[in-house]
Amino acid sequence: MTTQQPLKLACIGCGARAQTYTSLAAKQPERFQIVAGADPVPGRVEKIRQISGRADFRSFASADALLAAGKLADVVIIATQDNDHYAPCCRALELGYNVWLEKPIATRAAQVLDIERRARKADRRVMVCFVLRFAAFYRKAKEIIESGALGDIVSIQASEGVEPWHQAHSFVRGHWSVVAKSSPMILSKCCHDTDIVHWLVGRRCRRIASFGSLEFFRAERAPAGAPARCTDGCPVGETCPYNALRYINEKRAFWLESVFDRAQTATPEEIKVWLRTSPWGRCVYRCDNDAVDRQVLAMEFEGGVTGTFTMTAFENGRHLEIYGTRGVLKGGETYRKHFGANLVLLPHEGEIVRHSVKAADGGYESHAGGDPGLVNAVHDEMTRPPGAALEAGIDSTVHSHMITFAAEEARLTGRTVSIEEFQRALTKEA
């Protein structure tokens, strides 16, 4: 394949993430062709077909059906639910696909290592959707670090505020609310962040401790008289920030659209009927959720670099502080408000330097700027010469996953976990 030939893409899982990636890819027809899609929800496959603009687009009802059809494309996008990454990825590698894999790689540490092994054995490429590596905010932070302006990194602090409604939608009512059916919060939501910390520090994590729990979204926190569902007449419904009836109006765009295929066309009454039986109609204090709503990590990296990461449901956005021997770099919404810049470099001696990242390029918020950056990188890196390392390839992202698995082990056991020993034990079990 030459770099002039468009990469042919097939999608396994045609939901929001696949639609985002393919919409961006479709804007570059000289680089990408979207040729097939598989999803048990026909409307989602149809959406990808429309995005593709191809009369010969092939639609499938399942990953198994698409993979049984042989090798239809150069790259397969796997954007299914977390628990459904491992099996189709293994099969795709066997068929000779390169894989564009939504994070996390898999929901079990041993499966992550197995995919890495299979990719190496098949001589195939797996690029993981760690889009924050391609966001302008973090790329600027990396550039500042590599310029030497901070000197040697001594310590790093990072945080992610999930935002209360997002927590309720995804991790209380939604797909990631029950750990056994999905994956731990630190993996499902925060492997982005452990990856960014690892990537910015540029060293492997040696040891990790972690604390966290589910404290707020629990039955004992329910207001007096609150029913099992918001549609059943809650006495505090008018003032409750988590009232599911908000999906009818202000939470219809994006939030309802992500879980209800008829969100754009349904009437208010039809949405209310849907909420009466949907998981998203439940009172947030009366769900079966067990995903944590707060967690902290304390990390020791090679060379003595220390790091902390905080996940909380009760903040919005990401923040970053990096302490070096020559200066400190701080970034996030708080610093933008106080200093008028997304990233602020405070030398131990000298003047403050402000770095602004254009909002159109993503700033620090969400994945903004990272999604198009990732799509561009997929083409560039999937068409590199054999043997060339990928910027977000599986070789460079497995360790980020091991940090999250070891962190969950530390949280559950109360121990400080050696990541090397944790991974060695997995290898022995295999």
What is the CATH class of the largest domain?
Alpha Beta
Order of helices and strands: EHEHEHEHEHEHEHHHEHHEEEEHEEHHEH
The percent range for helix content is 25-40%
**CATH fold call of the largest domain:** Dihydrodipicolinate Reductase, domain 2
Query: Helix segment count?
Result: 15
CA-CA gap between termini = 36 Å
Total count of strands:
15
Average pLDDT over all residues: 94
* Coarse structural class: alpha/beta
Q: How many strands, what sense, and barrel or not for the largest sheet?
A: 9 strands, mixed
Strand content: 15-25%
Please identify, by name, the CATH architecture of the largest domain.
Answer: 2-Layer Sandwich
Could you state the oligomeric state of the chains shown? single chain
C-alpha Rg (nearest Å): 22 Å
* CATH level 4 superfamily of the largest domain: Dihydrodipicolinate Reductase, domain 2
Count of the domains = 3
Low-confidence stretches: 360-366
Shape: globular
Strand order of the largest sheet: 14-13-12-11-7-10-9-8-15
Notes on the protein architecture:
This protein is an alpha/beta fold. The protein has 3 domains: about 5-130, NAD(P)-binding Rossmann-like Domain (Rossmann fold); about 135-215 and about 290-365 and about 390-430, Dihydrodipicolinate Reductase, domain 2; about 220-280, no CATH class. It is about 35% helix and about 20% strand. Helix 4 (about 85-95) packs parallel to helix 5 and helix 5 (about 110-120) packs antiparallel against helix 14. The longest helix is centred in the last third of the chain and has 20 residues, at about 395-415. The two termini are about 35 Å apart. About 45% of the residues are buried.
